[in-house]
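[job 4471] stage=fold_predict status=RUNNING
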Amino acid sequence: MTSVTTDRLPAAAGERDQRIAWLRAAATRIRRHALTMGEVQGQGYIGQALGVADVLAVFYAREGGELRLRPDDPGWEGRDRFLLSIGHYAIALYAALAEAGTIPLEEIETYGTDDSRLPMSGMASYTPGMEISGGSLGHGLGIACGMGLGLRRLGNPARVFNLLSDGELDEGSTWEAAMACAHHGLDNVTAIVDVNGLQADGPTPTVLRTEPVVDKWRAFGWNAVRVDGNDVPALLDGLDRVRDHAGGPSVLICDTRPGRGVPFLESREKAHFMPVAEHEWQVAHDALEATR
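[job 4471] inference complete, writing structure tokens
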């Protein structure tokens, strides 16, 4: 558990119920930020951003967030590294970085515009707090493995978290990296898999079946924990099980629902790259506030 100190060090005290309340409020703000950015462009991967907001809140919330970081010094050597393999989820991570204080809140309204530090796909060279550039899937876990090895050899206690999508499990390079992490016993590496059941070409089970996903990760030598990714208490319980594991890498598998928090978007069929009409953005904002 972390508090809002400069270094995000573990809090000496703090009630679980209070932490849950903080994180739920942060998730709502992350969703609000994502809707604001989506409206700037009139399109985007808004379904994923709304769906993964609870996961990102658990890591990036100013109060109670898991990551050790300094919002005003994103290159601090002691920080935990959070890698976004899925570059098209950048809108979600920008919202989380705004929540953390790394990106000024007013900057989110520049999303995807010329000369913005917030391009529509994640670019490490542009955005403070964006550890790696994303685009083609399957690279993040390999980078996480290398970072984990390097940090261990330096004696740096920082942790490496890699957010992947369930579609990214179609990539052979992901499983090569999974083998390498287990081989080297990298207990400073945690994968987070957003299982939302959707890919660009259709539902995940019809594109390439990944289940039984927990059994597969365990067969590769990982400590695998599966939770409801839209349930903050369940996410905290899962993180406890990940944090307490030693001797090898862990994976937190998070089942999420695209469009979560905005009911009429949750039921939208074409949810991978979600069409949202101009008049619907304010309706979405109002629906989000009504579900708080």
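[job 4471] summary: DSSP finds eleven helices and seven strands in the chain.
[job 4471] exit 0
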